[in-house]
Amino acid sequence: MKVTVNFGGTGVVVPCKDGWVVRDLIEQATQRYRKIVEQDGEVRVRTHHVEYADGGILDPDDILTDVVEDRDKAFVMILKQGLFS
To answer: Where along the sequence do coiled-coil regions lie (predicted)?
Structure first.
């Protein structure tokens, strides 16, 4: 299964493993997003919460396959702090 996670205008595709919870998706998506934005310098990114594409906040402790399907989209609300060189 793979899920596209959108950080504002930037989407990252995350291949998901069996047994993952939403928290695992959040960690992997944030790590991939960080790689993209840190090309211009270090940026601190903290994920506030993740919303399902149809609305509703995903609970980090839910089993991923119970709340999303293959090729679903989710949107991340983030707090981004400064650019550090």
So the answer is: none
Q: pLDDT digits over 49-85, tens only?
A: 788 777 788 899 999 889 887 877 777 765 544 544 4
Question: Do residues 72 and 66 make contact, with C-beta atoms less than 8 angstroms apart?
Answer: no
* Residues 26-36 pLDDT 10s: 899 988 988 88
The residue ranges of DSSP E strands in 8-71, in sequence order, are: 10-15, 42-52
Would you give the distance in Å from CA 32 to the centre of its chain? 8
Helices and strands, number each (H, E), in the chain: 2, 4
Domain ranges of the chain: 2-84
The answer to whether the pTM exceeds 0.85 is no
CATH of span 2-84 = 3.10.20.90
Side chain identity, residue 85: S
